[in-house]
Amino acid sequence: MVTTLACDTKRGWKFDFSFYVAAQEQQHTRKLYFAQYHRPPFHGRVCATPPGCLLSSSPDGPTKGFFYVPSEKGPRARLSATFGFNPCVNTGCGKPAVRPLVDTGAMVFVVFGIVGINRTRQVDNHVIGDPGSVIYDSGFDLFKEIGHLCRLCKAIAGNVELVKPGGAQCLPSGYSISAFLQMLHPECKELPEPNLLPGQLSHGAVGVKEGRVQWISMAFESTTYKGKSSFQTYSDYLRWESFLQQQLQTFPEGSALRRGFQTCEHWKQIFMEIIGVQSALYGLALSLLICVAAVAVFTTHVLLLLPVLLSILGIVCLVVTIMYWSGWEMGAVEAISLSILVGSSVDYCVHLVEGYLLAGENLPPHQAEDAHSQRQWRTLEAVRHVGVAIVSSALTTVIATVPLFFCIIAPFAKFGKIVALNTGVSILYTLTVSTALLGIMAPGSFTRTRTSFLKALGAVLLAGALGLGACLLLLWSGYKVPLPNGTSL
């Protein structure tokens, strides 16, 4: 459209050419006009304004118009390597690529040829314990059991509830056994292929010693998401264990494959978390029972025990709620701290109850007529008597834990924060809720005597005997009592 005769610099023309044009305005474009005319002295031209391209007064036709070209002022867009790529050619689209495996699920290994670990050897004066030695299954023969192994691989890979699509990695990568394994048995044909990234190796493995395959491990990308809670993941572990045992029972009697097992690094983590949480709950319940028994013997009255018990429960619940709001996870430090929360939160309210009992020994005669007046007067006297002491004790405890906040070792810093939080909540709860409970439900004219002490001690012993008898009855009836270490009685 631009001829050499029209590019006369004296007339204000300049050579301008662009490869990309658009019929409609786009971002970062400029508008140009064109006119095509092949009769001398007029020539085809491209110009920036309409006056330069109006060759005649005739209406716009196919030889006149405008278009848009990229502006030099706009940012130059970088086109991707796949720009303009069309996967659908010849009226058909190819099969989409399979999504490769990523490390979001637990990798479960099904192992054969290993019986267990021998940990009988003891190494003295060593900080790291002996991991033990592997006990191999002498009856395992890979080439004898190859058909059953391939059938098991297909069965596990076909369980979509346990294994992701393309998550079966039955054979190791880059090992000579993978090349001819499929020719040994008809069952080994058409084994499921894993979806691996370029250069990524299979997690399947074999152990060879003296030219003999001693063990084999098949890997499966589980549908278990690693971000699930431990108790939810435990149900996935049970499904894996149940399904695998069902498959192993289908093997012939005496087959070494019946001694196979499944293992996963993620299972160890969830078992540690479950045992930690259960241990924390057991420790919390045990410390609460001991605390209730001790306070019952100390106060010798159920209406003095009840305010203390409600205060302990309220303090523990409030501290755990604050820990949850702060985003703290249940770790080893938190589990240990839960077991000592009861003992550290009972101090201040028990001192307040002690002040209430001491105030009853000096009750004025004009307060002895009305039980409500007696409770209020004794509560106020208890706060006057021990209030300064327990507040000072709480302040010194909090100040003593402040240096732990700046420890480099994380467990120390976390423990200091938990102790300071529990101390602050305990003193606040004691001066508000515990004081109110004493003024509402405490006995007005009760004083501690030797008779009340013996009655309280007998009630605690009787309750302990009844609890022990109930546990023995459950064990005798076949009920398994779970223990903190994961076992059961």
From TrEMBL:
Residues 283-442 form the Membrane transport protein MMPL domain. It is found in: Membrane. It comes from the Eukaryota. GO terms for cellular component: cytoplasm; membrane. PANTHER family: PROTEIN DISPATCHED HOMOLOG 3. The keyword Transmembrane helix applies. InterPro entries: DISP3, DUF7023, MMPL_dom. It is a multi-pass membrane protein. Keywords: Membrane, Transmembrane, Transmembrane helix. Residues 1-105 form the DUF7023 domain. It comes from Myotis myotis (Greater mouse-eared bat). This is Dispatched RND transporter family member 3. The chain crosses the membrane at residues 280-298, 304-325, 386-412, 418-441, 453-479.
